[in-house]
Design brief:
single chain; 256 residues; six-stranded mixed beta sheet; 23% helix
Length: 256
Amino acid sequence: MKYKLLSWNVNGIRACHNKGFLTSMQIVNPDIIGLQEIKALSTQVPSEIDNMSGYEKIYHSADRKGYSGTAILSKPNILEYSIGINNPAHEGEGRVITVKYEHFYLVNVYTPNSKADLARLENRQEWDLAFFEYITSLEKDLPVIVCGDLNVAHKEIDLANPNTNHFSAGFTDQERSGFQRLMDHGFIDTFREFNQQPDQYSWWSYRTASRQRNVGWRIDYFLVSASLKDKLIDAQIFQEIHGSDHCPVYLELEFE
């Protein structure tokens, strides 16, 4: 069985809908869609998206209106699902949906941003550890696929200007160490299994025409448990798809 998965920080599902979300999804035709930063209650999701044929929908909105939030749209049968990471200190912002399938757990995540002044860096470090503990606990049952906006560029190749950003949110030593913890455990950065080229980004600031100049960051990922390595078929970044300041990332796997 093949699975085609797509992950996208839509930066507002209503705004993205107005910029061609449905057309993009029809072209790619993924089996499973993970969305981050939907910025909407379930009742505010455009009806055209909520009624997409063949998909079961799960929404996890933040308590604060117009902020954060995640969603899963799934064609394959969902065995069960949960929201959050079983940690009261990190709930209320709609950041995680976990779905159980026959072969794996899919964890759709919108990782907290440390903020421009790094005001949330300490909270972010606590989150990174709590999230690590959560997904590794899932691995005791099934392999795990993590998709979403992890709000960190792992290596210097993953952003256009590393030398000037070592103290910027998303590229601090602390955040990169949190990501490296996942790698040291054995999680695989699937895109880098297929593509080692520079200039491969998934987010661009709206300021200074960054996307047109491709001055970006790769902060959106599909990570998989080490046991899924031989199931990987393809991983891509769809830079040509617009509708958000992020573009979608893609993963394809096959199980016997």
